[in-house]
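#struct-queue
[09:14] JT: dropping the first one here, sequence first, then the structure tokens:
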Amino acid sequence: MGNSIVLGSGYGDEGKGLTVHNLCAPDSLVIRFSGGQQAGHTVIHNGAKHVFSNFGSGTMIGCPTFFTEDTCIYPKTITREWQELVGKGFTPRLYIHPLAKVTTPYDVWAGRLKELKTRHGSCGMGIGATMKRNEGPVKLYAVDLLAPASLLRAKLEAIRAYHGFDENAPLVELEVFIHDMEAFHEAVANRRFDVCRFDQLPRHSNIVFEGSQGVLLDMDHGAFPHVTYANTTSKNAWKYAGADAAVYYVTRCYQTRHGNGPFDDNPVTLTNNNEEINILNTWQGAFRTGEIDDSLLRHAINVDLSYHPANTECNLVVTCVDQRPDFTFDFSTMKGLFAGVYVNDSPNSGNMVKMKIA
């Protein structure tokens, strides 16, 4: 089995988690190379269900996860998810690059406050605020979590000052914030992860690169300002994959978008979608659906092809086909673009079925 890069071909929520799970073998390594704790990748395995955010979607079959320097981590949510997975009978393993950016409760507050003003779209998890802050002098990296407590406190105080945190400002429920800071420090003290470089990891039979969100939300290629603060193309994955990886572009059998931004709203009728985790919420807004737009799909793939080494194998994965019994699509239009077209129900983790391209 060779290396694989799994990307969302739209605005996120396409079914990347179950695709990663299906591409993993027990000795695989899952690499997260964009985004961070905002992921919501649902997998059902042997009757157990989990929504992955801080761990890779191969965890249920024993695959460890590595977060690269292009990602964010939030110790508080890592610990919470670690506890959830252990409670379900799994043993998650997480390695983090020393230069991965660290989110703090101050970043979460600042990101949410900005979203109230702009409504550009946010998951409310502090990703954008973290990435923006780290472009300047006030940085916090995973390696800093290993520093003496006095140095970490000084860095956190600098982050507090950078964001102008005010205990009386909007969104500050002081008891909740104090609890979040306590949870942050407790998570740092009881680390559920190892800080190390990629070349220090044990060898694995293959690597599955797990993308975040979708190509159409990429910070360089999406419709600004309704984008994410990350490269959601394969750009960052190639730094670790070399030229040895096949790319799997994932789409549901309908288009989706969570929150504001350009989208051809044309709600589709769905069945058997009881496992849907995307609902209206305070920060992301409404979950929107529409028919697959062939031209938009091709645009997303053309954007990503800009980063490919020569002769890269490309595949299409269509998920959630159990939600639309009447779904039809002329896959022959994809001939010459993809080596294979696969279909899968969602979020159950049965094997992907390869379709013949006429």
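[09:21] JT: and here's the second one, same format:
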Amino acid sequence: MRPQSLAKVDYYWNVMKIDPTSYVSKSAAIGKNVEIGPYTIVHDNVEIGDNSKIGAFCEIGLQTTNAQSPKLFIGAESNIRSHSVFYAGSSFGHNLVTGHRVTVRENIEAGSDFQIGTLCDLQGSSKFGNYVKLHSSVHIGQKSTIEDFVWMFPYVVLTNDPHPPSNHLLGVTVSRFAVIATMTTVLPGLNIGEGALVGAHSLVTKNVNANTVVAGSPAKYGGTKDILLDDKSGQAAYPWRFHFHRGYPTSLIDEWVIESQQ
């Protein structure tokens, strides 16, 4: 007969899929088929949707006096990788995916299919749409608004304090389908227009109009987006949704294909 302790391990891992070294509050609502890895802490008032995975050494639902709500909601089919910390007071739609060592502060409202890369730092009190993709080491200042289908590449920084340090914060707004390339800094209170492209190593000091290209330090207008793909196909690189479809559902792709033919 197996020792009772080992039998308990089998029960948690094979039935509940919760590692016995983790701590899961009795008041947390854990969905069906959820996996919680070794040494992870799930605090009170956390709800994790069905078929989600929480990696090792994570802390989920960390309480703070800055949170407008004590609750944290993680949607179904999510995958939070190891050493990540999520504070209380936020809500994330289904299919949230993170890299490792992500920090997500309080008062965030996010849609579905949100991708947060390794070492990203989300400073809270911000809104994210659907299918937002942040690559590694992106910093999002408080009061930011990121709309649907936005891409931000490594080391992008969205600032929010026009006179640091101060208590007067102005968040950045990034409109749908915009792309911000690596090592770019956007100054407080600015708007990045729909479908705009901000080139690598840019310092954005003015609003960026929709469907335009800016680059440089300070970023300057670079013409309309008549850039061709570097694959000798002769196809326009932008709007990117007309040719890049990886990771998006068929229903969206079909809409984009029709739009590209008009």
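[09:30] RK: nice, looked through the second one.
[09:31] RK: The chain has a mean pLDDT of 93.
[09:31] JT: good to know. The CA atoms of residues 39 and 133 lie 28 Å apart.
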